[in-house]
Amino acid sequence: MYKFLLALGLLMFPALNCVAQVDSTAQVDTLIGLNVGGKESKDHKELAHMLCSGLKGDRPKANAIYNWITHHIKYDIAAIQSGKLKPEKIEKVLKNHLGVCEGYAKLFTAMCQEAGLKAVSIEGYAKDWIFDNGDQLTLPRHMWSAVLLDSQWQLVDPTWGAGVLVQSPTVIRKIINKVTFRKVVYAKKLKFVYRYDPQYFNQDAEAFRLKHLPADPYWQLTDTAMPLSVFEAGDSAVILFNKEYSKPQQNTPELARIAALKPDSVAFDAAERSYNFNSRFPVALAIQQAAKVQDNLKKIEDEADIEKAKALFKDATKAMKIAEEHIKEQKKFFPEQYNILKKKNRAKNGEAKQYMNQIKTDDKKLVAQCVKYRNGAATKIKKVNKKYADASRRKQTTDPNKLRDIEPSKTQKTALAPELVEIKDSIRERNERIDSLQTDVAARTVAIKALMDSNMTRLDSLGKCLATSDSFLVMEAKARIGMHDNYDDEVIKWSTLFKEKKYNRADTLHRDYITHYDTILMQSDERYKVNLMALDAFKKNLKDAEKYAKWNSDDTLVHNSYGTMVSKYQAAIDSCNQDLLYTAAYIKAHKALFIGLTKLYKRQLTIVQYMARVEDVRKKLEYNTIMSKQALDNNENKQQIANVKSAIKQMERVLQ
Questions:
Q1: Which end of the chain is more exposed for a tag (fewer CB within 10 A), N or C?
Q2: Over the stretch 15-29, which tens digit does the pLDDT of each residue have?
């Protein structure tokens, strides 16, 4: 009578989402039980004995059963997609090697019981791939098991331990290849892939409730039941609750009592606890009323007194009407719940696009800047090369023996002639100015070298930051490819790290680096101007010395000093050219750097483009999933009400 009220069905599978990390404390033998039986195994009792034969202790037996189920039972995609889930019989699951969470859990429980172990199946809540921190859960849609090992109840989820659901449209296929540089499993349609996970056998109770929470709080296996609101708040809240408020408690008299109940009595016994734990689950009370009806019907079969039988029928009818009201009450939660999910799906899609557009805008500006500097580098190098050529021509026009070829003036002047005194004074003043200018050049060279060194340190930090931020962006892209979104911890973690490293560090370093790069080139240009003033002064001195020698060819001092003046002039030219060569090399090296930065920023733009396309897929897939769940809930609720009304009418006819 009450099977129509069973609120089991939609498996909360870890499809397309990352599950909790492997619990290092779980004692799992990943090989035991794998080579026993196979496709030919049809009877769970026979299979249980085959698996456990020769094994000593309860833990190895349960371990072998877990391993066998997770390697041989395939998840029933068709059943889920049909939207018409029925209670699963374990022999059918074993015969077809196909089932959903109920089939996995009940098969594990039954095989453990056949092997002499105490085991129960547990209905509860689980976080599927569209779950976001803060989402409110209504119906418990998942089932797992608990088995008593070494006098302690241990939690086991063979469904999540068996594999994952994969749905990767063609666009995702290309994106994953680009971002991860490795092949992964793809499917144009939803597909189950075996991926054995030992962590879901004998997982620590507190770690288990990061992703699972039983409808009956007793099966949390802790001394303090964690409220559903904490579970809904997310992993951080659960971890904090575990740390501050609870510790494992895996065997109590109450658990022993519940575990000893007959299967038909479990839902009745847990109904009020389940409803009090989650008031958005009134169907639990409907199940309790249905159980009461079933009990009354059994009593009627043995009741000889017609009046008492009618009273029992009347009481059963009343219970069915109460059940109907609870079912209708359950339906009230659906519109608001699913409207919130749809609205949130649109909101997080909008936030994701805004975030990705920010990255695009920033990186496009950086690309444009790098391209500008890359192109500008070629022009700058040409200008430096021209300066180098001009200075080199100066050197080619100098000759320390030039005075020998100068024809003396017919009218010679004495050394005291005003014109010659003025020339000597000018040469002396220019030499002093040259010394001052060369001292200035030396100081500028030291300052430029210090700027280059500090900017090289800045560049090293920038490189590290960009490499790190790039790796964070790749990890975020991988998380998004796994259908995680802006509200999921996996995306929040990597996007937060990326933004911190990129915007608060790398972009600042990039901006400072460009500023100092410009400063270095500006100061190098200023140094060249000072060098040029010194070279012009040298050249003017040589011209004056040549004029002096022409007017006074007998002054040996001038003739003797001319060669020294030429040598100093040539050395100054060489020094200037060395500075120009160093500047050109610096610009050339940074031209390559700007090309590298352009590639890196363009790579980030490509990754973000992939992320944006994945986000569009995720939004559509999540919307379709929400609609499917809503349709399933509404259809199930409608069928439940129809069944109750039919049952009430039948009872009323009997009473008449």
A1: C
A2: 333 333 334 345 677
